[in-house]
Amino acid sequence: MLWTSLLAFTAIAEAAPWSDWLSKRQGGTTMLRFGCAQVVIDRLDPLVNPGSIPSPHVHQIVGGNMFNATMTTGDVSQGAKCTTCAFSKDFSNYWTANLYFKARNGSYKRVKQLGAANQFSDNFSTKIDGGVLVYYVSAAPGKVTAFKPGFRMLVGDPTKRTADSKLKTQNCYRCYTGPNFGGDNAAPCAGYGSVDSAGLPTKQCKGGIRSNILFPTCWDGVNLDSPDHRSHVAYPTSGPANFLSLGGNCPSTHPVRIPQLMYEVVWDTTPFNDASLWPTDGSQPFYFSYGDNTGYGQHADYVFGWEGNELQKGMDATNCMGAKCKDMKNQVIDTAKACQVKKTVQENQDGWIDKLPGTDMPMVM
Q1: Higher pLDDT, 9 or 339
Q2: Which of 311, 76, 73 is nearest to 61 (CA)?
Q3: Where are the alpha helices (DSSP H) in the chain?
Q4: CA distances from 259 to 98, 248, 310 (A)
Q5: What are the Cα distances from residue 115, in Å, to 81, 119, 207?
Q6: Cα 224 vs. chain centroid, distance in angstroms?
Q7: Rg of the Cα trace of the chain?
Q8: Any idea where the domains of the chain sit in the sequence?
Q9: How far is residue 300's CA from residue 162's CA, in Å, rounded to a whole number?
Q10: What is the pLDDT of residue 10?
Q11: Given pLDDT bands bounded at 50, 70 and 90, which one contains residue 21?
């Protein structure tokens, strides 16, 4: 079982944070941790640029097949017919910007993703061949209220290019020091100064780069969205919750505690570890699809789409760790991968390109 595997791994890990995190949660807290394969890679963003075809930059999207350019309101679980996620009743959509490698000659190529680390994961999540690993944690103190139908939110700011120490636990990167996820021995965003950084790693990572994005854990209890897609949610009064912590008190303006949602993406940068391809000055050559090579602008979008009370069931459960929980419904990986959305914007997705895909770049029709 995942719980046993995690305990066994943390017993031999060089860093203690995972052990600390687990020991704090043995009293009954749930951590749903599961993979979602890609449903489509496309230049659409129905949250920030609803109706725009194309949107300004490329995203990788996972989850339900209801995803489209105009899904601005409503319960997506009512329209989706399938999902790429391990839990078969999770028709939510989760998306992030894609990462690209910029070669010395100025051309770009999309960085593909890997599955989840074997030592932590179920048989489904290690076979997603890209996509996103999703976490929902029922962090104490107090009851955790699952998101409501129609709920949406955005975390991060794509315009940021400098570090913000107050928000570093919201966004982090891990440079895998060896193959097979080498160096993955600390809880997400816990090893700053050792295994984690607030920006993209500046050195070649032998096993790839992992990125984590954490969402706010407090809600105003009224609005399912807001004009900036952020104001209806908030961080605890103590600031962004460290994934190791149990979370602080919610502010009076946002009194409802919601699940700690986190995305985890493993970027397979290993095909680009040839030093002859890197800039002559050795500078960091990876760029997100919106033109950011610092990593500080990392952001993520979320549209809730769990069917019925399925997510609340998980948040009310005790000691659920991983991709199985009580009688929550699962599916096999082949069924999940068969769930796809037809690509809308036809662009060169996997070859070398002269520019990052954007509105100034001619589309291949």
Answers
A1: 339
A2: 76
A3: 2-12, 17-24, 310-316, 333-337
A4: 25, 13, 13
A5: 24, 12, 13
A6: 20
A7: 19
A8: 2-337
A9: 18
A10: 30
A11: low
